[in-house]
Backbone:
């Protein structure tokens, strides 16, 4: 079965079983997202994909598309809400974009640009999160984790290794390595695992690569994340 | 030498003059003068009032991040820190010799920085004092005032700086905080269109730099008593020189000349700087006082930067700048040129050298193609020494087996000049302050002396931005007698 719904006043077709976000993306319409990944089931943690349907907030990465509904996404109100969510993510970690090697390739930074985030707005938490450089090929800079669990899911479900887990709640939430020592070197993690190549921000990094690709020549330097994402989804954005 | 009038006897009975902070230098410094009942200077100090240890931010970080991170040390000379850091880390990745293309690109970037920094310092920060006089109307002592009175000079200053910034952008990727250099080499070639655009301007930059040297010489000759006498004192000189004794601002061995111009150390490997230099801490300043170990803190301090480099080398390897260097040396009539204001003259000779060198480099096709990165056996330690616009800059790192920085030691140019700047303000205070009333013009004399060194207090203190100037005169009991302030 298939149908059609309205996204910001324009018709979007969908196949049965698609979420609002999937249908929009297939139609070349961008709804911002961070913890969602096309190859994994929705995670529903970042809330960046929030839309309004009939006055109610929904996570579009998880909410199924329904015939005839009217979805609001690109409105001043929702953009402001998303900006506030991003600002909270920035202060909950230690994000220092100017010297981060993921700059220009980081989805959090790219979303901040996309949403015209000009300041952190909230007080920084400065959580203490030491770096784990024990592995010969990979360094973990926990300072930048946004708890999307993509690495957790990739390691468990694709790599079959279960290297990562989230631990603690609220502001004490943090990513841990499943080894008695807690060190990445004491796992069977490898640089070509999917989990080593999926982090949307700058936590799981291949050592000694750093700034080999010049800043300015990276995916989100050239185009905003909305355009990059839609191109990846097989559709160029409407101009 | 050195510490006379650093601490007065019975200082609690003296009145205090404070210039806080020093304007038109970068960062936050404070000058305090203690005067006795007759208005004589009894104590003079340049204080650095803020310090945030940058080293702790570096320690524990992956080494490849460091060349980008250290640019945050300073908004004024990020390129120098960037290059000093990669030079140190070249040793860590086993690539003390980077591929020729990378080497030339880094040189180009560095001389672009020299040119833009020297142009900024001379035209924007110093020419107002030199052209209008130290006691001229303060509202006019800025680049806008220069533009009104000498439109050509101001315009050339602005365009020289812009050219230097363009060289940096083309090599580092951005005008500030670029990422062009990586441990072991570079991450980009020069683009053909950037080379063409820069090459088209290069000849004019050489010409204008040449004229700038002429301008400083005219100023010197118009008032030799002022230019040769103002803040003059004896000191040693430290800088890098090339293996054949030529001026080289990117790499070389360390050479030290004593106050009479005799070479005490020559071609000391940059990796061995610790055997040569030590730093003394004094309780009244956050900025340390470096000195030559062999001579000790009293006799072993020195000057770095243009005045030191132009006299330390045996020759400058570009013709116009070399002719100017000879004229400069002749000016000393057999003795080293010691005047504080001669920094400006030497600085313009270096700017001319940078312009000539950039013009030559731009003709080199190797900038456009060829391998960019080298690698060799991994090491755990590296030192990078570079002649930054303001003088010798030292970066020293140790990196553990997990690739994290375990030790970071930085000695910035301005710190090398700490004792020299203190000595200069004492010399100036002696000559111009005794018994005279406090005026803005008089206090500007002190600042002119400090500014001649082009101190980057931002680097030395890691405090960003300029602050308004306030001058305070305190009586012996600490009460405020008089205050002068400007933005
Ligand atoms: S490390 Fe990266 S992928 Fe894993 S939870 Fe954190 S942000 Fe997500
Ligand atoms: S993308 Fe939907 S909650 Fe994160
Ligand atoms: Ni600086």
Residues:
């Amino acid at each position: 079965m298939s149908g059609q719904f309205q996204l910001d006043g324009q018709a979007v077709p969908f196949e049965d079983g698609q979420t609002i976000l999937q249908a929009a993306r297939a139609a070349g319409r961008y709804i911002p997202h961070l913890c969602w990944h096309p190859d994994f089931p929705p995670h529903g943690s970042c809330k960046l994909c929030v839309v309004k349907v009939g006055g109610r907030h929904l996570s579009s990465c998880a909410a199924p598309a329904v015939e005839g509904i009217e979805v609001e996404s690109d409105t001043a109100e929702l953009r402001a809400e998303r900006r506030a969510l991003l600002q909270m993510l920035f202060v909950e970690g230690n994000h220092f974009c100017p010297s981060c090697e993921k700059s220009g390739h980081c989805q959090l930074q790219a979303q901040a640009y996309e949403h015209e985030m000009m300041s952190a707005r909230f007080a920084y938490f400065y959580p203490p999160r030491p770096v784990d450089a024990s592995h010969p090929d990979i360094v973990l800079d926990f300072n930048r984790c946004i708890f999307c669990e993509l690495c957790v899911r990739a390691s468990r479900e694709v790599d079959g290794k279960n290297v990562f887990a989230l631990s603690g709640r609220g502001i004490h939430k943090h990513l841990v390595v499943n080894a008695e020592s807690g060190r990445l070197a004491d796992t069977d993690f490898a640089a070509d695992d999917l989990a080593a190549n999926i982090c949307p921000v700058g936590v799981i990094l291949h050592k000694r690569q750093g700034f080999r690709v010049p800043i300015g020549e990276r995916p989100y330097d050239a185009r905003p994340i909305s355009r990059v994402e839609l191109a990846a989804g097989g559709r160029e954005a409407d101009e | 030498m050195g510490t006379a009038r650093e601490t007065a006897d019975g200082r609690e009975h003296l009145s205090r003059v404070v210039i806080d902070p020093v304007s038109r230098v970068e960062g936050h410094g404070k000058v305090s003068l203690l005067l006795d009942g007759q208005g004589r200077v009894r104590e003079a100090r340049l204080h650095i009032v803020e310090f945030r240890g940058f080293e702790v931010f570096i320690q524990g970080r992956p080494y490849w991040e460091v060349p980008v991170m250290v640019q945050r040390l300073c908004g004024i000379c990020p390129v120098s820190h960037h290059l000093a850091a990669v030079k140190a880390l070249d040793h860590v990745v086993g690539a003390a010799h980077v591929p020729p293309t990378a080497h030339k690109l880094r040189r180009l970037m560095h001389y672009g920085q020299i040119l833009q920094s020297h142009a900024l310092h001379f035209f924007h920060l110093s020419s107002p004092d030199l052209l209008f006089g130290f006691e001229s109307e303060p509202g006019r002592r800025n680049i806008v005032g220069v533009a009104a009175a000498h439109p050509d000079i101001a315009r050339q200053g602005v365009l020289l700086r812009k050219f230097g910034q363009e060289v940096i952008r083309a090599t580092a990727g951005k005008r500030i905080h670029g990422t062009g250099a990586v441990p072991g080499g570079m991450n980009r070639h020069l683009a053909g269109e950037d080379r063409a655009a820069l090459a088209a301007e290069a000849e004019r930059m050489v010409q204008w730099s040449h004229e700038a040297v002429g301008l400083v010489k005219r100023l010197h000759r118009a008032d030799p008593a002022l230019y040769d006498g103002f803040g003059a004192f004896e000191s040693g000189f430290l800088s890098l020189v090339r293996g054949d004794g030529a001026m080289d601002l990117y790499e070389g061995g360390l050479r030290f000349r004593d106050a009479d111009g005799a070479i005490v150390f020559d071609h000391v490997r940059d990796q061995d700087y610790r055997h040569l230099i030590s730093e003394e801490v004094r309780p009244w300043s956050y900025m340390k006082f470096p000195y030559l170990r062999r001579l000790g803190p009293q006799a072993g301090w020195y000057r770095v930067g243009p005045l030191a480099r132009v006299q330390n080398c045996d020759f400058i390897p570009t013709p116009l700048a070399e002719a100017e260097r000879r004229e400069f040396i002749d000016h000393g009539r057999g003795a080293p040129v010691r005047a504080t204001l001669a920094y400006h003259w030497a600085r313009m000779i270096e700017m001319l050298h940078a312009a000539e060198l950039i013009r030559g480099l731009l003709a080199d096709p190797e900038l456009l193609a060829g391998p960019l990165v080298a690698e060799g056996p991994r090491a755990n330690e590296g030192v990078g020494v570079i002649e930054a616009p303001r003088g010798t800059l030292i970066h020293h790192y140790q990196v553990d087996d997990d690739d994290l920085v375990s030790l970071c030691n930085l000695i910035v140019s301005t710190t090398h000049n700490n004792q020299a700047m203190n000595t200069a303000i004492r010399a100036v205070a002696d000559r111009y302050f005794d018994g005279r009333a406090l005026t803005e013009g008089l206090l500007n004399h002190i600042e002119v002396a400090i500014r001649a060194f082009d101190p980057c207090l931002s680097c030395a203190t890691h405090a960003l931005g300029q602050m308004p100037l306030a001058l305070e005169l305190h009586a012996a009991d600490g009460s405020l007698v008089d205050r002068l302030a400007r933005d």
About this structure: The beta strands of chain A are 2-7, 10-15, 50-53, 56-59, 70-72, 138-140, 164-167, 174-177, 204-206.
